[in-house]
Automatic annotation (TrEMBL), chain A:
<dbReference type="Pfam" id="PF03334">
    <property type="entry name" value="PhaG_MnhG_YufB"/>
</dbReference>
<dbReference type="InterPro" id="IPR005133">
    <property type="entry name" value="PhaG_MnhG_YufB"/>
</dbReference>
<protein>
    <submittedName>
        <fullName>Na+/H+ antiporter subunit G</fullName>
    </submittedName>
</protein>
<feature type="region of interest" description="Disordered">
    <location>
        <begin position="99"/>
        <end position="129"/>
    </location>
</feature>
<dbReference type="GO" id="GO:0015385">
    <property type="term" value="F:sodium:proton antiporter activity"/>
</dbReference>
<feature type="compositionally biased region" description="Basic and acidic residues">
    <location>
        <begin position="117"/>
        <end position="129"/>
    </location>
</feature>
<keyword id="KW-0812">Transmembrane</keyword>
<keyword id="KW-1133">Transmembrane helix</keyword>
<keyword id="KW-0472">Membrane</keyword>
Automatic annotation (TrEMBL), chain B:
<feature type="domain" description="Na+/H+ antiporter MnhB subunit-related protein">
    <location>
        <begin position="797"/>
        <end position="919"/>
    </location>
</feature>
<keyword id="KW-0406">Ion transport</keyword>
<dbReference type="InterPro" id="IPR001516">
    <property type="entry name" value="Proton_antipo_N"/>
</dbReference>
<dbReference type="GO" id="GO:0015297">
    <property type="term" value="F:antiporter activity"/>
</dbReference>
<feature type="domain" description="MrpA C-terminal/MbhE">
    <location>
        <begin position="687"/>
        <end position="766"/>
    </location>
</feature>
<feature type="transmembrane region" description="Helical">
    <location>
        <begin position="32"/>
        <end position="56"/>
    </location>
</feature>
<feature type="transmembrane region" description="Helical">
    <location>
        <begin position="823"/>
        <end position="843"/>
    </location>
</feature>
<feature type="transmembrane region" description="Helical">
    <location>
        <begin position="571"/>
        <end position="590"/>
    </location>
</feature>
<feature type="transmembrane region" description="Helical">
    <location>
        <begin position="372"/>
        <end position="393"/>
    </location>
</feature>
Length: 129, 965
């Protein structure tokens, strides 16, 4: 049982290490900011996820019992990672990408990041008279 | 006589309390205002009168109250003959001046202010003469300098008034500083700061090697205050004050403070050759010099000012002789001078008031126009000249008698001759005051037609002149007072003396006759002498003073600019160099303990973290012009430092560091929004090299010192062991860090949260003033960043922060509650909650969030400080010192037994202060953003799918409202 657990823990750690490395490498090597954004997302979800699984297994089998810390960390990661990515993407669009370079939205209105407060208010008012 | 002694602090306090009222009562009219000023003075006089019989019987009344006993500073008062005389003079003449000033001041003068200043001054003077503690005396001494500054500069619109006030403050204030040093030396010799104790230690003081320095310093203070040569020059310039002030301060009271102190210290300081040669010689020079200058002054008040200088010199000389009989003469002359000189000043004021000029050359013949004033002025001036049957004669005879017996450096005739010369000129200027102002023909060209004033104005000088004549004719009436006072000055038995008019054909009588005859002769050739005097070159004190003041100003400005020209880098460089130099001095001069510990093995993970730390620091150096990048590197450094704290088992510090780091970086990011993104190059390469060398040296020095301390032991045993031992038993907590913060060093923490609160308020105030000025206009001009992002408050962020809010608050409460025993506490909890709030603000915008926040942040800070303060005060009710903590264990079923400590209430104060401070800083930044054109959203998020159907109207309104905001 212990041996099995140790193997599982080790495997999770190795997998997480590989994904962490791939994520970091991608961050360095990918060509433009938008694609580069994907690399650390992989690293957090799979890399950190692997470490968390390893940690849980370790505490269940070899440590003091079931530990909830990892679940909380997972929860916070799941909350924060997409928001961070969202903001980085918004910033990239806002600062470096002209509105016309993006695909059309098909609604007659631009993507949210490019729409000013006044324009949005007016558009929504027109749509729902 | 304990019961009467309690009057003493009341007498001293009465004018100070009374000073509050005239300024208020001026609304009710000038008469009421003057009466309000008179009431405390009269009350003080009544109390003094109650005390007087006991003092005249030879008792010494005492009162004592510990104030700062550890410093030797106590509120001790005592009243003996000398104090009684001076207190009587100060209060008695004070009440006359209050009466006189009521009629002297014109409608344009703010009378309330005048009486307030006057009472402040009166209180300070009474304080000086009643103090039984030299430190307390020094406090009152400086108060007289300050309040006389206000009085001399009372006519703020006159440059002479302002300059005179400044000069008086400079001279008397610097004298006061010297005196503080002298008094401290004296107190150290004796081992007590109580005057009564010091007065009993004559032998110890005069035998001490520090006697001469103490004597010199105290005398500088006395001479500066009493306008003795070479400090005499400030008194004539102080005459720019209104006449009541001159009459009060510069004849009767303040200038006598120096004399008072010399008389007070007479028993312990006098009797040595040093005392004789310094004090008597200074007095003699001042007497003669003042008298000669006075004769040639055309301004009435200047004449009187220099005559005052001369008479003060006379008294100083008498005190300097060091014999008991000379002390008797000095005391007697103090009384006489106060009466006739105050009267003379008041008549000068009347002349000025009625004729609109004080220039003797434009006056004359007033005898016919102002008969009452003439009578008063004549009697007072004749007394000053020393004519028989007036009180000035008596004390002048005694002075000449003492002078006749005094041998100066082996010469028996020098002092008598010079004293006679001084008396001669004194007679001359006194006669001049009568002859050139009042006698002669009536002129037609007075600036205003003079006539006698109302009774109210001449009542006060009239009363004083009555005393002049009374004492002059019946010297016996003053004898008990003189005897008691002189007894107090001498501090022992007095030799036989008697105050009477006729002593027989003594040498003094001949000297007096010479003086009167000579004085009349000199006056008769005044018109010949005056042009020559005016033509003669002589140093002008004001120009010298101004030149010195200017030089000092230029030097100070040069020094300040050198050290502190507003350049932060220069300031930091000077600071760093100074600290390094001090450190080097300590390192080379002292002896460092040998290393007693082995360095730890360096493991791989810490080594990597360390390398990262170093790399980031270097990165900051290289990229420091790119501010955003620097901020990110700073964040990395902060995180590694927190990890280091965990690695070295300091969880409290780690928690604090990490939360502070988050808050700091967020606030800095927001601030960066309003700053250029890149720092321009401003310094030359040479300067950068210099700064680099200084910074490098500082860094290496600190690193080296840390390394040495880490390997070695402290020179003294560290206090940590005590904290560890007593944390649980004394503070009721197992988290030593928290117990130190809220209990052992609670007072420090109390101060720190106040500082934190003040810092936040200052940030707020600064940002508000920036917004009101050029900075605000620049922000509003829209140059900052015209390109605005849409969808500023994205749905995902808003929802996530809402979800996080209760969890974060819960974590805050948890950290707060467990703080006493586990890592945590009010400070960290405050930061955690602040971060939870900051998240809401980031998600939905500051204005939206602040609208949902009931308690303003200023109030939060205040509540925090008050919570901490009241917790501390609570200890008083248990009869313990401020901030003593207590704790106990409580059981509320079904909960387990838990601990309640007063420190927790204190911690709440810390908690609130931290939240308030962080949020107020955020608020300040947000108001800048709004000035820069950021609109205010009324809704939590910009695109809300749930709102589609209902939002339109509201949205429109929101945008409109946002534009207005």
């Amino acid at each position: 049982m212990e041996l099995l657990a140790e193997i599982l823990i080790t495997a999770s750690l190795v997998i997480s290490g590989i994904f962490g490395f791939v994520g970091s490498y991608g961050l360095l090597k990918l060509p433009d900011p938008m694609t580069r954004l994907h690399a650390p997302t992989k690293a957090t979800t799979l890399g950190v996820g692997g470490v968390l699984i390893a940690s849980m297994l370790y505490f269940i089998v070899l440590g003091d019992g079931l530990s909830f810390h990892e679940l909380l960390i997972t929860l916070f990661l799941f909350l924060t990672a997409p928001i961070t990515a969202n903001f980085i993407a918004k910033t990239q669009l806002h600062r470096n990408v002209p509105m016309d370079d993006l695909p059309k939205t098909g609604t007659g209105r631009p993507w949210a990041t490019y729409e000013s407060d006044e324009a949005r208010a007016e558009a929504e008012a027109n749509r729902n008279p | 006589m304990e019961s009467i002694g309690t009057f003493l602090p009341l007498i001293a306090m009465m004018p100070f309390v009374g000073a509050l009222f005239p300024g208020l009562m001026i609304q009710a009219g000038r008469n009421v205002c003057a009466m309000t000023a008179a009431v405390p003075t009269i009350l003080a006089i009544i109390m003094l009168t109650i005390c007087a019989p006991a003092v005249l019987d030879g008792e010494v009344l005492q009162f004592s109250l510990p104030w700062l006993p550890s410093l030797g500073l106590n509120v001790n008062f005592f009243l003996d003959g000398l104090g009684l005389l001076f207190a009587g003079l100060i209060l008695g003449i004070g009440i006359l001046i209050i009466l006189y000033a009521r009629f002297y001041l014109s409608r344009q003068d703010p009378m309330g202010q005048f009486y307030t200043y006057l009472l402040l001054f009166q209180g300070a003077m009474v304080g000086i003469v009643l103090s039984d503690n030299i430190l307390l005396l020094l406090i009152f001494w400086e108060l007289t300098s300050l309040s006389s500054f206000l009085l001399i500069g009372y006519w703020k619109h006159l440059p002479e008034g302002r300059q005179g006030a400044r000069m008086a403050l400079t001279v008397t204030g610097m004298g006061g500083l010297a005196m503080i040093a002298g008094m401290l030396i004296l107190g150290n010799i004796v081992g007590s700061y109580d005057l009564t104790v010091i007065l009993e230690n004559k032998d110890a003081i005069q035998a001490s090697p520090l006697y001469l320095p103490a004597l010199l310093l105290i005398l500088v203070g006395c001479f500066a205050k009493s306008a003795q040569f070479p400090f005499h020059f400030w008194l004539p310039h102080a005459m720019a004050a209104p006449t009541p002030v001159s009459a009060y301060l510069h004849s009767a009271t303040m200038v006598k403070a120096g004399l008072f102190l010399m008389a007070r210290m007479w028993p312990v300081l006098a009797g040595t050759p040093e005392w004789f040669y310094i004090v008597a010689t200074t007095g003699l020079i001042t007497m003669v010099l003042g008298a000669v200058i006075a004769l040639f002054k055309d301004d009435l008040k200047a004449l009187l000012a220099f005559s005052t200088v001369s008479h003060l010199g006379l008294i100083t000389m008498l005190l300097g002789f060091g014999t008991p009989l000379a002390a008797v003469a000095a005391v007697f002359h103090i009384i006489n001078h106060a009466t006739f000189k105050a009267a003379l000043f008041m008549t000068a004021g009347i002349v000025d008031h009625e004729a609109h000029t004080r220039d003797i050359k434009r006056l004359g013949g007033l005898r016919h126009l102002m008969p009452i004033t003439f009578l008063i002025a004549m009697l007072a001036a004749l007394s000053m000249a020393g004519i028989p049957l007036l009180n000035g004669f008596l004390s002048k005879e005694m002075m000449l008698e003492e002078a006749a017996h005094t041998v100066w450096a082996g010469s028996p005739w020098l002092v008598p001759a010079l004293a006679t010369l001084g008396a001669l000129f004194s007679v001359a200027y006194s006669f001049r005051y009568i002859v050139h102002v009042f006698l002669g023909d009536v002129r037609q060209d007075y600036p205003s037609k003079p006539h006698d004033p109302d009774f109210g104005m001449w009542a006060a000088p009239g009363f004083l002149v009555l005393l002049v004549v009374l004492i002059g004719v019946l010297p016996a009436v003053a004898e008990p007072l003189v005897r008691t006072t002189a007894g107090a000055v001498v501090g022992g038995e007095l030799p036989y003396f008697s105050l009477k008019i006729w002593h027989g054909l003594t040498p003094a009588l001949f000297m007096s006759a010479i003086a009167v005859a000579g004085g009349a002769l000199v006056l008769s050739i005044h018109s010949v002498l005056a042009p020559r005097w005016d033509a003669a070159p002589r140093p002008e004190a004001k120009q010298i003073f101004d030149a010195i003041a200017r030089t000092a100003t230029v030097f100070s400005r040069w020094l300040t600019d050198m050290l502190h020209n507003g350049s932060l880098s220069r300031f930091a460089a000077i600071f760093a160099v100074a600290v390094i130099a001090a450190g080097l001095f300590a390192w080379t001069g002292g002896e460092a303990g040998p290393p007693v510990r082995e360095p730890l093995e360096i493991a791989a993970v810490p080594a990597i973290a360390w390398a990262l730390l170093v790399l980031c620091s270097l990165g900051m150096l290289v990229f420091h012009r790119n501010r955003l990048l620097v901020l990110i590197l700073m964040g990395v450094v902060g995180l590694i430092v927190s990890l280091a704290f965990i690695y070295f088992s300091a969880p409290d510090l780690a928690l604090t560091q990490i939360s502070v780091e988050v808050v700091t970086i967020i606030l800095l990011l927001l601030a960066l929004n309003f700053l250029p993104k890149v720092s321009p190059k401003e310094s030359s390469p040479g300067r950068r090299l210099r700064d680099g060398v200084v910074a490098g040296a500082g860094g290496l020095a600190v690193a080296g010192l840390t390394y040495a301390i880490l390997l070695g032991d402290f020179a003294q045993e560290s206090i940590s062991a005590f904290h560890l031992e007593n944390s649980y038993s004394g503070g009721g907590g197992t988290n030593v860090v928290n117990v130190i913060l809220v209990d052992f060093r609670g007072y420090d923490t109390f101060g720190e949260i106040i500082v934190l609160g003040i810092a936040a308020l200052v940030i707020y105030a600064l940002s508000q003033s920036v917004l009101g000025g050029a900075g605000g206009r620049w922000l509003a001009s829209g140059e900052l960043d015209s390109k605005k992002a849409g969808d500023r408050h994205p749905l995902m962020m808003v929802i996530a922060s809402r979800v996080m809010m209760p969890i974060a608050l819960m974590a805050g409460v948890y950290i707060f509650l467990r703080g006493h025993n586990e890592p945590g506490g009010g400070f960290i909890a405050g930061l955690v909650v602040a971060i939870a709030l900051v998240m809401q603000y980031m998600a939905s915008g500051f204005a939206w969030a602040v609208a949902r926040q009931r308690v303003p942040y200023h109030t939060t800070i205040a509540l925090g400080v008050m919570a901490a303060c009241f917790t501390g005060v609570g200890a008083w009710f248990a009869g313990r010192p401020f901030l003593t903590s207590d704790f106990g264990y409580v059981t509320i079923p079904p909960l387990e037994k838990f601990e309640l400590a007063t420190a927790m209430a204190f911690d709440i104060g810390v908690f609130l202060c931290v939240i308030g401070a962080v949020m107020l800083a955020l608020d300040s930044l947000s108001s800048m953003a709004r000035r820069a054109g950021e609109t205010v959203n009324q809704l939590p998020m910009d695109i809300d799918p749930a709102r589609r159907s209902v939002a339109n109207a509201t949205d429109k309104m929101a945008v409109a409202a946002g534009k207005e905001a």
